[in-house]
Amino acid sequence: MILELDAGNSGVKWRLIAGSGEIASSGRGVGESFNTIGLSETERPTRIRVVSVRGPDFEAKLRKEAVLIWGVLPEFAASAAASARVVNGYEVPSSLGADRWMAILAAYSDCEAACCVVDAGTAITLDVVAEAGCHRGGYIVPGMSLQRRMLEKSTSIRLSPVPDWSDISLGVSTSSAVQNGIVSMLSDWIACESRGRGKLYLTGGDAQVLSRHLETMKVEHQLVPDLVLNGLAHALP
Questions:
Q1: What is the pLDDT of residue 25?
Q2: How far is Cα 200 from Cα 53, in angstroms, rounded to an integer?
Q3: How many CB atoms lie within 10 A of CB 33?
Q4: Does 226 qualify as catalytic in the annotation?
Q5: Considering only CA atoms, which of 79, 189, 179, 204 is closest in space to residue 135?
Q6: Which of 79, 137, 207, 210 has the least CB density, counted as fewest CB within 10 Å?
Q7: What is the average pLDDT across 33-61?
């Protein structure tokens, strides 16, 4: 069995892949430890693949725990100059976020054509890949919740405790004006930047929210919750 982890800024997503290639179990949380996954005695991984944006201390902790619990040393994915027929477009390839690189590899391997990849998490990233597999670069902007917090922190605006991202119409309160404006702005931005750039892929914690509004705008796209995890098999075959 192969245990795969996507350790992002806001939480850890994991799945266990059986020898047949099927997903045996999966989950998510904000834990900092393998102990929070809670695999059964029969769910012992023989290999562990990880993509992490949490830094060397977190990776060192995972290595120590994995060896102690299962006797397996985790493999950590990293951005490369080229992999799986995709050429990294960054001036310094290793500086491209590993999670972005995994999503790019998975998307291009799926369509084998020009594509646009959006990962909507704490930050929202948009990457463009040309027909022949050349990554042309991308954008990084604050995510939905981060924009909301930044407005509250930097102004006298006070918002409702629980955000409502369901609408993009004109707001009739300060909270709805902020929240609807954020979603409207991001949906329009994604629609504009992805136009004419091939198949559009959405992933990340807020992808489902954006997907609903893009559907209303009749913007064709594919929602792939496990896109980053899917990239691990291409980076670490």
A1: 87
A2: 24
A3: 13
A4: no
A5: 79
A6: 137
A7: 84
Which pTM does this prediction carry? Answer: 0.93
Sorted by sequence, the CB contacts under 8 Å of residue 234 that are 6+ apart come out as 83, 84, 102, 105, 106, 109
* Selection from 181, 134, 137, 135 nearest residue 157 by Cα: 181
> Token pair of 154, please?
């930097």
- The residue from 6, 99, 127, 206 that is catalytic is 99
d(CA 220, CA 231): 22
Scan for tokens 């102990």, then name that residue. 35
Give 15's Cβ-side CA count (13 Å radius): 16
Which of 26-35, 81-90, 103-112, 204-213 has the weakest average pLDDT? Answer: 26-35
Where does residue 222 rank: exposed (0-12), middle (13-18), buried (19+ CB within 10 A)?
middle
Three-state SS for 221-237 is CEECCCHHHHHHHHHCC
Strands (E), 8-88: 12-17, 23-29, 47-52, 75-76, 82-83, 86-87
Q: How far apart are CA 105 and CA 110, in angstroms?
A: 8
Coil, helix or strand for 37?
coil
What are the C-alpha distances in Å from 34 to residues 22, 28, 167?
21, 11, 38
